[in-house]
Design goal:
Rossmann fold, alpha/beta, globular, 6 strands, 181 residues
Length: 181
């Protein structure tokens, strides 16, 4: 049985070349969490939108987050929501505390560094322009996540050549299978 997956795109959404968009086309049951504002996101609004999407699922979903939405997952986990998720697949977590992070977001700072109350896996690149590998390692340790480092992969998005990204899809499917055991 295919898991219920909610994809959580980052700042500015994920375009047609992004792995999230391509995986959604391949797996019609995998749904993107919609947001009213992709360009100047407000954390409280994004948390509420994520909570509504999770609550609409028939079973606890797996969250497949990219970039800013990795921070969103940690904020949602700390929100006290009664909704439940099976786990979180966190790819290319952006460091919203870094001076180089775009200043068009509200409420995502500081980074949440509390353990997540569900299984999680962080996938990080050694040359991501939005997070130093040492910070990604710190996030994974703080969240209680397993860390997979995939080398020089930029921001692990369509611009960095990660469109279909079959290796990432397999990582997610393996993660989902482990959750069902």
């Amino acid at each position: 049985m295919e898991p219920q997956v909610l994809t959580l795109a980052g700042l500015w959404n994920s375009g047609p070349l992004h792995w999230q968009t391509q995986w959604e086309a391949k797996h019609p049951g995998w749904l993107r969490v919609p947001h009213r504002d992709w360009d100047t996101p407000d954390c409280a609004e994004w948390v509420a939108e994520l909570d509504a999407a999770i609550a609409a699922c028939a079973q606890p979903p797996v969250l497949a987050a990219h970039s800013l939405s990795c921070s969103l997952v940690t904020r949602w986990a700390a929100s006290g929501s009664r909704a439940r998720v099976a786990g979180a697949f966190l790819v290319g977590p952006s460091d919203v505390d870094a001076p180089s992070y775009p200043d068009c977001t509200t409420g995502f700072q500081p980074m949440q560094l509390a353990p997540l109350p569900f299984p999680s896996l962080v996938v990080a690149s050694t040359d991501d322009p939005y997070v130093r590998i040492e910070r990604a390692q710190q996030f994974a340790a703080a969240w209680g996540s397993r860390l997979v480092t995939i080398g020089d992969a930029g921001h692990i998005n369509g611009d960095a050549g990660y469109g279909p990204w079959p290796e990432g899809e397999q990582l997610l499917l393996d993660f989902c299978a482990q959750l069902q055991r």
